[in-house]
Amino acid sequence: MNIYICLILFMKTVSSKIETVQRLSNAELDEHRRVTNSHVFPYVVAILQRSKYVSAGALIDENWILTAADGLFLMRETLKLVKVRLGSINYKKGGLLLPAKLIQIHPYFDDKSPIFDVAMVQLPETLRFTPKIKAIRLQKTFMDVAATHFIVTSWNPLLKQKPKHPESMEAIERRRMLTVTHLHPSEVEECAAELDAYGVNKTDLIMCLDPPGGSEICVENRNVGAPVVLNRVLWGVVSSWKTSDCDQGAVGPSFVTRVSAPDVTSWIHATLHGHRWKHKSNE
Question: Residue limits of the Peptidase S1 domain (predicted)?
Fold first, then answer.
């Protein structure tokens, strides 16, 4: 009888541990939603200016990274300063550090608007995939946004103002670690209204994500270039665009450039294969 009771208790313990592992398997996070395992998001890339963090990006094949355009727009003139770190959850160390070979900005990008805020970074060599470095599949068929939440991964940007008190090394290290958030999509009508307020009517190009409790779109910690993923498929990257009324504390969703939008997916495909992109009407 005692053996039978022990067996039941043992099975319950094993079952509880399995459930815990399953809950953590999609994130591998600590209490601060920081990623602790480089194998979980092997497609996430840190884009750097020298050693300074600029934005996140997504590895989409052996030679190319997809990210937001605005942060890289002016850096094309100083390409030799641009580095990318792959296969590490710490943007300062580990993994593979490579220089950028080429930066391609979407031809329709305009920093006065959140649409077409997408760029591609070419690597100097063809990668060999490992458990820590793997490309992510792109969403190619345009679909309505009906998901409950998306996985968004990025690093915290550097503080523009020095803290009043010296930070501990532990605090500095925490800010260098990859973080993940689960963001809910805005209602389609709400997103369309938000875009219309900024004179944007191309709602098929943009998806809106609502951070928990609302968020100021002007704050620096906005997941710029972060991959937006559902079921291991890349839906888009977070735009780096800011409104002209940032000094008024504007509040709103994060804008995401959708990779399945016709003028985005065709440009990505042409760039990947070294073809000249045939511009379509952008009216």
Answer: 24-273
- pLDDT (0 to 100) of residue 19: 37
Cβ atoms 237, 154 nearer than 8 A: no
Distance CA 130, CA 221 (A): 30
Structure tokens at 120: 């591609």
Question: Taking a C-beta distance cutoff of 8 angstroms, is the pair 86, 133 a contact?
Answer: yes
> Could you tell me which residues come within 8 angstroms of residue 236 by beta carbon, excluding any fewer than 6 positions away?
207, 228, 256, 257, 258, 259
Look up the pTM and report it: 0.82
CA angle 142, 213, 215 (to 5 degrees): 70
Mean pLDDT of each 10-residue bin along the chain, 283 residues long? 47 39 39 78 96 95 95 81 96 96 94 91 97 96 82 78 66 85 90 88 88 56 86 94 63 87 95 86 51
Residues 6 or more apart in contact with residue 113 via CB below 8 angstroms: 198, 199, 200, 241
Neighbour count for residue 7 (Cβ, 10 Å): 10
Task: Quote the pLDDT of residue 75.
Answer: 79
Q: How far apart are CA 155 and CA 54, in angstroms?
A: 9
Query: The domain 44-159+167-272: what is its CATH number?
Result: 2.40.10.10
Measured CA to CA in angstroms, residue 239 lies from 36, 107, 200 at distances of 26, 16, 14
- Residue-range domain boundaries for the chain: 44-159+167-272
pLDDT at 263: 94
